[in-house]
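Review box. Two proteins, two foldings.
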Amino acid sequence: MSVLADPGLLPVPLADLADVPTPAYVYDLAEVRRNQARLRAALPEPATLYYSLKANPHPAVLAELRAGGALPEVCSTGELDAALGAGWAPGDVLCTGPGKRDAEIRDALARGVRHFSVDSPHAIDQLDRLAAEQDVRVRCLLRVNDDQPVPGQGLAMTGVASQFGADTGWVLAEPKRFAGGPHAEVSGLHLYMGTNLTSVDDLVGQFARSLHTARRLEGALAGHGVRLRTLDLGGGFGAPFAKAGTAVDLSGLRPRLAELFDAELAGWRDGTPEVAFESGRYLVGTAGTLLTAVLDVKRSHGKDIVVLESGINHLGGMSGMRRLPPLTPHLVRADRADDTGAGLEALVAGPLCTPLDTWARGAHLPALRPGDLLAVPNVGAYGLYASLVAFLGHPLPAEAVVDGDHPGRAPEVSRVSLTRTTVTKEH
C-alpha cells in the first residue's frame, strides 16, 4: 500500500469540501449517473435493472438511481423503509434474502410489496400462508443454487453449500414442492451465480450457465402448472474496492448477451420472459471516497506508526476482525501533493483500542504529519454500510453528497445514528 499524491481523485475541488467534517464518506452523484448509464448501455433491451440496497442505502444515492430507472432489491425492513422513503412504489420492490421472519413479511405485505424471492419449500409455504392472512396474491422468484460454480467470480454464490437458493438437483427431484400455492405464485427463477466478476467473458459464461439451468428447471416445473414469466439473472458486475481504478469495462457485453438470449430465450425481446439483472457495487462503488485525517505519526520499536481517524470500524467490515482476507486500502493524499521529507515504511492504524485495528503493517508512504488529509478511493459500495460502526463506540463518519457535474454547489452533509432512525443535516 502507498499514499498516492493525487488530489484530482476527489469528485469536486477540495475547497468545496471545506465545511465537511472528517472522517467522511463523500458520494458523487455524477459518478452514480455515469455508472448507471454505462451499465444500461451494456445490457440488452428490454431488461429490468434492480439496485441492491445493501451496497449503499443513502437517500440521495437512492433518489439518483430511481431517477435513472432502476428498481429496488431489498432484504430487510430497514432497506424497505429506505426504498419507499426514496420514492419507489411498493409494487416496484423485490424482497429477497434467505430466512425471513413472519413479522417482516407481514409488514412488507401490509405496505403493498408483492414480489419476493424464495429459497425453499418452507419459504414458499410461509409466504403463501401470510399472503392468505391478508387475502392477497404475491409473485415468487425461486432462487436456485446451481450444481457447480462458474469460474472467475470474486465470491461464490452457487455451486457450494449455501443458505442462498434451492439446489438444482432438489428442484428437479421434487418439482411439486416448488410449484407455489394459492396465494404465492412461483412466476420466475432467480439465479445469482457470483459477485465482482471483472471480465465480459466471465459475465457471459455466468449468464449462459444460468440460462442452461433455467431450461432444465422450466420443463420440470411446467408439469406442475408453473409458468416462468421472469428470469432474474443476478449480476456480479465488478468494481474496484478501496483501490485505485475505474469501473469495469463492459464493452462488447450487450451484443454477446443479445446473441445468447436470441439462441436460448425465444420471446425475450417482447418481454416474455422478462429478463432482469441486479447490481450494487458497479452502480455506486466508484462514486464513494472516504476522507480521513492523520491523527498522529510516531515511532515504536524502530517502526513508523501512522494513526488515522478511520480504522476497521469505518472501512473493512469483518475483514478487520480477520474473518475475511485483510483489507489494505490505497491511500491518496487529498490536501497536498508534495512529498518533501524522508519517506516512511509504516504500520497504518486506526484509533481503536485493539491491535486488530490496522490497515497495513509495511506501507511505503511519503512523509506525513498530524492533520494531513488522506482519501481512500472507490468505497461507495460496502464501505460505511458494511463496517463495524458500533465497535468501541467511536463516532460514525459523516456522509457528504456532491455532484461532480456541478462543482461549487455546497455539499449536503449528514450523520446517521447507529439505529439509522434519525438523520440531521449540518450546515
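Next protein.
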Amino acid sequence: MYKRFFKRILDLALAIIALPFWFIILVIVGPIIYFQDKGSIFYNAPRLGKDGKVFKMYKFRSMKMNAPDLRNEDGSTFNAEDDPRLTKIGRFIRKTSLDETPQLLNIIKGDMSIIGPRPDLPEHYKLYEGNEERKLEIRPGVTGYNQAYFRNTIPWKERIQNDIYYIDHLSFWLDIKILFKTAVSVLRREDVFVNNKNMKSSKSKNAGM
C-alpha cells in the first residue's frame, strides 16, 4: 500500500510544503548563476524515469556554458572537486547539493520521488544487463539508498544492485532512514566528489550540469 499509494501522496505533500523555501533559494542562487557567465540558470537533463520513460530532470546549472561532457570508463558522469568545467557558484551548489533542489518540480509533476534510485542517462538503457532494468520499476529519486550511504564512492553497476535492493525492501521506515542519513551526509559534505582519472570526453555539451 505504501509503495503504490501513500509514497506518492507523501512525496506530493512534502514537495508542496518545501516549495516556498525553494523559491527563496531560487531568488538568491539564480542571479548568481546567471551573472557569473551570463548563461541559463537551469540545466534540463534528460534522464530515464519509471518504466524507461525519458523525462527532463531539472537542476541548477553548475557548469560553464558549452562545457564538454566527460564520462568515467563505466559510462557514468565524471565528478571531481577540481573539475575546471564548474563555475564558482557551481562548485558551491554541488558541495551543498543545492543544484538538485529544482527537482521539487519533478516530484510535483510526477516524474520523480523524494527517495528512489537516482535516474540514469537515456543511453544507459542499452547497457543494462541481467536484472538491472528492474531499477526502472519505480520513480527515480532526488536522493536514495546509494546517495545516503555511499554518495559517489562506488561504481555504477554496484549502485544499480543497491537500487534493486531498495526496491525489494521498500518501506516507509527505510525511506525515513535514507532521508535522515542523506541529511547527515549533505551537512557533512561527505564523498561529494570523486577524483577518477579514468574518464573520456563526449561530443555532447553541458551534460551533468
